[in-house]
């Protein structure tokens, strides 16, 4: 685990991220808060591209909890069977749809606690929805962010909760809204797990990672 980078270095890192991509976007396709919630829940242990392929035909016919319930668990499975753990995910999506209709008037709640009370929705999923839909600077720590945080010293921590706190504590406020998207995209396409593309990295000179590639 790298040592926490100083404030000035972190500010320069995120200044560069912002200059390269001022408005980074999540890559999961969605049309409203409900489809975003479902897409993120389906993305656990799956790629965004795989989820997008599965939901391309699903969301046009099931973009509300009521329509999802009308489709039913078996109907949902037919759309998402290419995604890992599809049976359990289908069960959770139907259950959370039932709860949304019963307890929330068919609307996705906008508090972390309420979101995490839904089946199949953990803190990371809740934070993604809070950030992307309600523009709350919640930090969704996935494997990419955990790796980058500890590899670079931007936000080191022994577990995802510690990394989330480090992002909130260490990254300047004006970069908080998009921080997790910049880090996820950087980890997905540049600072990859096995062969990081250090030669193409815009923060190469600021990164203390010892095993840099040429």
Describe this entry's structure for a reader.
This protein is an all-alpha fold and 214 residues long. The chain is built from 10 helices and no strands.
Give the arrangement of secondary structure elements:
Layout: H1 7-20, H2 33-42, H3 48-55, H4 65-80, H5 86-104, H6 112-116, H7 123-134, H8 143-152, H9 160-170, H10 176-189
Helix pairs in contact: 2-7, 4-5, 8-10
E-strand count: 0
Q: Which of globular, elongated, flat, extended, rod-shaped describes the shape?
A: elongated
The chain-level structural class is: mainly alpha
Low-confidence stretches: none
Strand content: under 5%
Computed over alpha carbons, the radius of gyration is 18 Å
The separation of the N and C termini measures 22 Å
Q: Short summary of the structure?
A:
With 214 residues, this protein is mainly α.
